[in-house]
């Protein structure tokens, strides 16, 4: 059984409801069709009956709930709640009404806030900011969270590295140039995500173009400082750095470049030094190694909200829906 099949099997154990706000995109309907056929989540699609009929083409989405914000009897309560949540920021009833009737992502996030859905998946045709802004405004951060970040769950076929080719890559979608303190927080969140989703112990590598001081630069120093902060704050984690990618995942290279490291050569959770490296890295692995790339998944939001790459396929959305459902289970 593949990794994502295991996630789907877990999702079936306690069915959750996931809302999809991008009713203008055919990939939404293809993904919904597959999820409903496999039966591991309930699906809500936001849009008018006319929009859905015009955009779903020949997809069979029987069983999905279609919610039209302009007609739903719950919209008034959502408007009132949005005003309550954002009143100090100048939110009025008129403005809240306009937002919820024109932005399906905001509407979907309100459904999650009000308990009418368990999680949201968006981003196939919207930017990460469009997905995360309403989530941070309405759902806020989870208790104890120092930083909201994102990760990709990567599954590389026929791969001897990581956990049989399963990795977490972070942060590949949100934080542009994290400080040492932020990198340490990202490392902890990513380790928690890896453990929760795979059931295995994370081995965290703080990546750089340098291994254990082989190069000198402020960028290297940042990763060294992040490693020190993370080790002091989270001594229970198997975490080490700074190290180059080959030293992190290839046993022979790890033994040579970082002898004695508890992580080198065996890392499964890779923390990139900035967004450039993370985003380029995951796309290289996805396209050249034909890896399954699920994400960017979000860490640190109070309820499960997950972003998508705008270059994603319907099958990618299916996987993210399954992961979102499992994340929702963990909040029960």
Tell me what you see in this structure:
The protein is of the alpha/beta class and 332 residues long. The protein has 2 domains: 3-140 and 301-329, 3-Layer(aba) Sandwich (Rossmann fold); 149-288, Isocitrate/Isopropylmalate dehydrogenase-like (Rossmann fold, 3-Layer(aba) Sandwich). Helix content is 45%, strand content 16%. It contains 13 helices and 11 strands. The protein has helices at residues 3-12, 26-38, 49-55, 75-86, 93-102, 104-113, 128-138, 180-198, 218-233, 245-249, 251-257, 275-288, 314-329, and strands at 16-20, 41-46, 65-67, 119-121, 149-155, 166-170, 203-207, 238-243, 269-271, 292-299, 305-306. A 6-stranded mixed sheet has the order 8-7-9-6-5-10, with helices on both faces. The longest helix is centred in the middle third of the chain and has 19 residues, at 180-198.
Low-confidence stretches at least 5 residues in length (pLDDT < 50)?
A: none
The best one-word shape is globular
Number of helices: 13
Summarize the biggest pleated sheet. Answer: 6 strands, mixed
Strand order of the largest sheet: 8-7-9-6-5-10
CATH topology of the largest domain: Rossmann fold
Distance between the termini: 26 Å
- Helix-strand makeup class: alpha/beta
**Approximate helicity band:** 40-55%
Mean pLDDT: 91
Please report the first level of CATH classification, the CATH class of the largest domain: Alpha Beta
* Residues in β-strands, percent: 15-25%
Count of distinct strands:
11
Query: Which radius of gyration do the C-alpha atoms yield?
Result: 20 Å
Order of helices and strands: HEHEHEHHHEHEEHEHEHHEHEEH
CATH architecture of the largest domain: 3-Layer(aba) Sandwich
Number of individual domains: 2
């Amino acid at each position: 059984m593949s990794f994502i099949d295991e996630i789907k099997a877990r999702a079936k154990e306690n069915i959750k409801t996931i809302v999809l706000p991008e009713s203008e995109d055919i990939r939404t309907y293809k993904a919904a069709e597959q999820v409903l056929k496999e039966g591991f989540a309930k699906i809500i699609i936001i849009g008018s009956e006319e929009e859905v009929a015009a955009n779903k083409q020949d997809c069979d989405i029987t069983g999905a709930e279609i919610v039209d914000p302009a007609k739903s009897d719950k919209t008034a309560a959502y408007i009132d709640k949005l005003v309550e949540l954002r009143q100090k920021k100048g939110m009025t009833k008129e403005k809240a009404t306009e937002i919820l009737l024109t932005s399906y992502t905001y509407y979907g996030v309100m459904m999650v806030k009000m308990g009418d859905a368990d999680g949201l998946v968006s981003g196939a045709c919207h930017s990460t900011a469009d997905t995360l802004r309403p989530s941070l405004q309405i759902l806020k951060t989870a208790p104890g969270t120092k930083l909201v970040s994102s990760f990709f769950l990567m599954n590389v076929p026929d791969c001897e590295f990581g956990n049989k080719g399963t990795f977490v890559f972070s942060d590949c979608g949100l934080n542009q140039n994290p400080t040492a303190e932020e990198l340490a927080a990202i490392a902890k969140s990513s380790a928690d995500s890896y453990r929760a989703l795979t059931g295995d112990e994370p081995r965290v590598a703080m990546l750089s173009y340098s291994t254990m001081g082989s190069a000198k630069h402020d960028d290297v120093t940042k990763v060294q400082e992040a490693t020190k902060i993370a080790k002091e704050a989270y001594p229970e984690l198997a975490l080490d750095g700074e190290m180059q990618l080959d030293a992190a995942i290839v046993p022979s290279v790890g033994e040579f470049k970082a002898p004695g490291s508890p992580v080198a050569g065996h890392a499964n959770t890779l923390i990139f030094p900035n967004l450039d490296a993370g985003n380029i890295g995951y796309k290289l692995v996805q396209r050249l190694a034909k890896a399954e790339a699920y994400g960017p998944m979000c860490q640190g939001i109070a309820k499960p909200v997950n972003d998508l790459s705008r270059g994603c396929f319907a099958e990618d959305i299916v996987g993210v829906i399954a992961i979102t459902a499992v994340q929702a289970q963990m909040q029960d």
